[in-house]
Amino acid sequence: MQFTVAIDGPAAAGKGTISRGIAEAFGFAHLDTGLLYRAVGRRTLDGTPPAIAAATLRLRDIARTDLRTPDVSDAASKVATRPDVRAALVAFQRDFARRDGGAVLDGRDIGTVICPEAEVKLFVTASAEVRAHRRWLELTEAGHDATEASVLEDVIARDTRDSDRADAPLKAADDAVTLDTSHLSIEDALEQACSVVRKIRENRP
Q1: So what's the pLDDT on residue 23?
Q2: Which of 38, 65, 128, 163 could disulfide-pair with 76, CB 3.0 to 4.6 Å?
């Protein structure tokens, strides 16, 4: 059984948490496609040219424990604007999406570019201020030194970069269901998302 759930949205909107929750609830495989770009970004910081880093990416690169730092996040956003990097990672994502048993992919262009034929498309968003606060809490709890104001500045800059890039800009697919998590608990956001998936699965021929 092939069933693809494509989840897009800006940083810290909650799409990762929702994606993992959907995968667990329905027994689907899950891929955080942002980790692909973070892993490429990490390798560029280590000195590997972006195109080569993407073309030679391995699972061990995605499993690194240092992919959530601010410098890697910034590098990931920058390499994601490169058509050669994006092209190198498209095939991997599409193969994962159509695996037997169902799959959930979250990123920024899953419903619009990677899996335009996905059975379910969600666009998970929240205000920049709410997302910056969430990211700031994550960073400080992990021991990173950051101010909430600086994190908000980074979030806004990344939103602009992701939305304005020429290749696969961040935007909701025309047929995506938008879920604004600004004022939702994790439980409520996940329940709403699962409700969308459940309804579409039940109505499949």
Answers
A1: 98
A2: 38
SS3 track for the chain:
CCCEEEEECCCCCCHHHHHHHHHHHHCCEEEEHHHHHHHHHHHHHCCCCHHHHHHCCCHHHHCCCCCCCHHHHHHHHHHCCCHHHHHHHHHHHHHHHCCCCCEEEEECCHHHHHCCCCCEEEEEECCHHHHHHHHHHHHHHCCCCCCHHHHHHHHHHHHHHHHHCCCCCCCCCCCCEEEECCCCCHHHHHHHHHHHHHHHHHCCC
- In the block, tokens 């050669």 appear at 84
pLDDT at 86: 87
Domains along the chain with CATH numbers: 4-193 (3.40.50.300)
HEC readout, 112-165:
HHHCCCCCEEEEEECCHHHHHHHHHHHHHHCCCCCCHHHHHHHHHHHHHHHHHC
Q: What is the model's pLDDT at position 125?
A: 97
6, 7, 11, 8: which is closest to 160 by C-alpha? 11
How confident is the model over 66-102, as pLDDT tens digits? 998 889 989 998 998 898 998 899 988 998 999 999 9
Question: What pTM value is reported for the model?
Answer: 0.83
Task: Give the pLDDT score at 53.
Answer: 95
Of 5, 13, 10, the residue nearest 184 (C-alpha): 13
